Amino acid sequence: MFNLKESKKIYIVTNRHLIEKSSNLCEAIEKCAFKGADGVILREKDLEYEALKHLGEKIKIITDKYNIPLIINGNIKVALDINAYGFHTGFENFKNMKGNESICEKIAVGVSVHKTEEAVEAERLGANYLLAGHIFKTDCKLGLKGRGIGFLEKICENVTIPVIAIGGIKEDNIKKVLNTKACGVAIMSSAMKIG
Hints:
Layout: E1 9-13, H1 25-35, E2 39-42, H2 49-65, E3 70-73, H3 76-81, E4 86-90, H4 91-96, H5 100-106, E5 108-113, H6 116-124, E6 129-133, H7 148-158, E7 163-166, H8 174-178, E8 184-187, H9 189-192
């Protein structure tokens, strides 16, 4: 997959529950980084502060080795405490955060969006980048139809900050996404099962 990206970026979104028993999350991330991943979004929503911080510190050793950014999903304290490149959160959470501007000055902040209006508002509130999805049908959103390439293109036309596409992106459809104005894609399932 990584050889298909051309000038665009491919970010890895973690989910340790998808990894085969014979491997672990750090090994999967190392393989992805070695093959050309451009960044890692540590998204382990079930972990409390201490466990997430410990895991983040281990993964940061890998991302620093490959000189790629580590972004912590859902826990700004961990992101700041381990000196991660960025913090990622959902639109509603970002909208309700106190002092968005001061946080965005300390650390790169990304926001997940599912509507053009959310994308525009997130940019207005100071987001540094957007994760737009889900583009295609995915096992992570069972029963929900993908929003499609048109949705992605509309978001890209309405904001000036980088847009990363997520959701059901695989080798057989990645070219469709990379042919849009999106700056790249984020993948989870195929990255966690990488050989």
